[in-house]
Write a structure and sequence with these properties.
133 residues; 5-stranded antiparallel sheet; 4 helices
């Protein structure tokens, strides 16, 4: 099994925080961090997913804006439920929880698991999840 490890700067960006804020969270014991082979501080993707969920606060309801029909949100996979044919993938994209139903084959092909970084593309009632290139 592949373990996703993210540098502090990338993890902070996914959470919408500064690098310094995330480092203070590490110092306070809110999330564990280790040093990689290059000496950089990294956090485990699954731990980051749990922290993202604990920090998420939905925005207050507001007026509907006239926005593009295509919206892409970068986030972290927080849950994957699979059976033999279909899967449900949940992402935490900043304060937004995004859920997608897709084939299990797609989940396996994309390597989606808790802690993986993914992109949710939203159009009308469909959510398409892919991996960043």
């Amino acid at each position: 099994m592949f373990v996703t490890q993210l540098r502090i700067s990338e993890a902070a960006e996914l959470l919408g925080l500064s690098d310094d804020t995330l480092r203070r969270m590490v110092d306070a014991g809110r999330i564990d961090a280790q040093r990689d082979d290059a000496g950089r501080m990294v956090v485990d993707g699954a731990d980051l997913a749990a922290l993202a969920q604990s920090l998420a606060h939905p925005p207050p309801p507001g007026p509907v804006r006239d926005e593009s029909a295509r919206n892409r949100m970068r986030g972290i996979v927080t849950r994957v439920l699979s059976d033999t044919v279909m899967a449900q993938v949940e992402l935490q994209c900043g304060p937004f929880r995004v859920v997608s139903l897709m084939s299990r084959e797609a989940v396996d092909a994309l390597g989606l698991e808790v802690g993986a970084v993914a992109i949710a593309s939203v159009k009308a009632t469909n959510v398409i999840v892919g991996i960043p290139q």
